[in-house]
Amino acid sequence: MISLTNKIAIGTSCLGQNPAHTLDLKIRAAAQHGFSGLEIVYSDLDRYSTLQNLPITTGAKQIRQLCDDLGLAILSLAPFENFEGTRSPIQDRLAVAAAWLNIARILGATYLQVPAQYGDSCTGEETVIVSEMQQLADLASSASPVISVAYEPMSWSHFYPTWEDALRLTMLVDRPNFGLCLDTFHILTRLWASPFDTSGIYPDGPAKLADSLRRSVTDIPMNKLFYVQLSDAERFEPPFSKSHPWYVEGEAPEFTWSKHARPYPLETDLGGYMPVTEVLQAWLIEKGFSGWVSMEIFDRRMRDETYKLETAAARGWKSWEKLQSDLTGATARI
């Protein structure tokens, strides 16, 4: 019988996606259902502060106090998007970053979560991207407490869509507070899960995933794997195409998929079908990663005002319990 020691967090976007689902209510629901930490989504904090007629910094102080009262850690402030390589003055972008970092410090967040660039107005020149990421990391370490930058390769990112690409960038940036956030959705939709195939799986997907996971166990330095995010995905039936009601011209299919159909891991009753357990077997068991694990899903059902936050939180915790059970079973069969 395995015993995982990972602390479990949940993103505030996973607990409701209607304006009526306010941040304070989401936090209480997470605390009531067993979670140890939160990823605070900036838009949730901004909406909460606006509704309270407060500056966002004051709203952040209130949210930190609420989390302290409930015994919840704040893992990250997220997502700080499309920073690197954007064709705008770097000083303007660093000024925005400084404001985010100030809020992260007020919250007591460990990480600023940074998805890899996917905007249209950007350069792929690696020397530029490395320099700008070094400046971001240095800014994040220029005051106390130091904030670490958790860089997330996304399956639709322009230049760093895989963990190998993001790890290369991490080593080039070469800052102790710059590392990786790895998300099962992006790993799997890049290698294994196809929105176009009737099976939902690329023909060479299982082999590619197995090879990638083998290498991730040995090649990713433990001190550069900051935390892991979990979600599943629904199979497209029929396969995704331009006639699909979710289709948006020019939008990456994986991005469309992510926005609408990412249930909690192993929610097969809601269409989840990805081998999330296989990924965690590699990272949590074989690699022995014992850091934070965080739920990050986007479920269109939660856009309904009547959707209950307690239901969302209960689904998340049930998913984690199911994952632990499946990992135990998989380990017993080895």
UniProtKB/TrEMBL annotation:
<feature type="domain" description="Xylose isomerase-like TIM barrel">
    <location>
        <begin position="27"/>
        <end position="308"/>
    </location>
</feature>
<dbReference type="InterPro" id="IPR013022">
    <property type="entry name" value="Xyl_isomerase-like_TIM-brl"/>
</dbReference>
<dbReference type="InterPro" id="IPR036237">
    <property type="entry name" value="Xyl_isomerase-like_sf"/>
</dbReference>
<dbReference type="InterPro" id="IPR050312">
    <property type="entry name" value="IolE/XylAMocC-like"/>
</dbReference>
<protein>
    <submittedName>
        <fullName>Xylose isomerase-like protein</fullName>
    </submittedName>
</protein>
<dbReference type="Pfam" id="PF01261">
    <property type="entry name" value="AP_endonuc_2"/>
</dbReference>
